[in-house]
Design brief:
single chain, mainly alpha, 7 helices, about 50% helix, disordered N terminus
Length: about 170
């Protein structure tokens, strides 16, 4: 049974809060490489075809996230956070063992939109945690039409302005 959007967001928020506490992270920007390391997930940067952002490969009780080294560092951070989301939320989503199952984003024949949505929500929450974002929203009294303010806050969180705006919408 699928959970509602609000329940999913609440569950993800709680899971990320526990994860940040476990990793000892309380300041911005969130160190996604440290989070991955705490989970036993390796990160490998490699040049991939332009639109390919990343991949999660499970091997035994460990996993590796492959990240496109050609992408902007903010995009790489989002990719790592997104794949950590898959790692924690979707056990068995991508496994390399005797068979290989790959879910490429944008390939309609293999995509699970619910899982991608959840991984994106997880990545947004990990990079822009609700508690820290709420403090900034109260402090700055955000004006969505103020491009300089949005740019400054996106830079503080080391995310794209687009990702920051989407997060504000949630």
């Amino acid at each position: 049974m699928a959970v509602s959007k609000n329940e999913t967001q609440e569950q993800i928020t709680k899971r990320v809060e526990k994860l940040l506490k476990m990793a000892g992270i309380s300041r911005l920007p969130v160190d996604v490489e440290k989070v991955a390391s705490q989970l036993g997930v390796d990160i490998k940067y490699q040049s991939y075809d332009g639109k390919f952002s990343g991949v999660l490969i499970r091997h035994g009780d460990r996993a590796t996230i492959g990240v496109n080294s050609q992408h902007h560092p903010n995009r790489q951070r989002f990719t790592i956070a997104h794949e950590i989301g898959h790692y924690l939320l979707h056990q068995g989503d991508l496994m390399v063992d005797k068979t290989i199952s790959v879910n490429y984003r944008g390939n309609d024949t293999h995509i699970d939109y619910q899982k991608e949505r959840e991984a994106n929500l997880f990545a947004s929450e990990l990079l822009m945690p609700t508690k820290l974002l709420s403090k900034d929203l109260n402090k700055y009294q955000i004006d969505l039409d103020d491009e300089d303010q949005i740019k400054e806050l996106a830079s503080k969180y080391q995310v794209s302005q687009q990702a920051f705006m989407i997060r504000l919408a949630h």
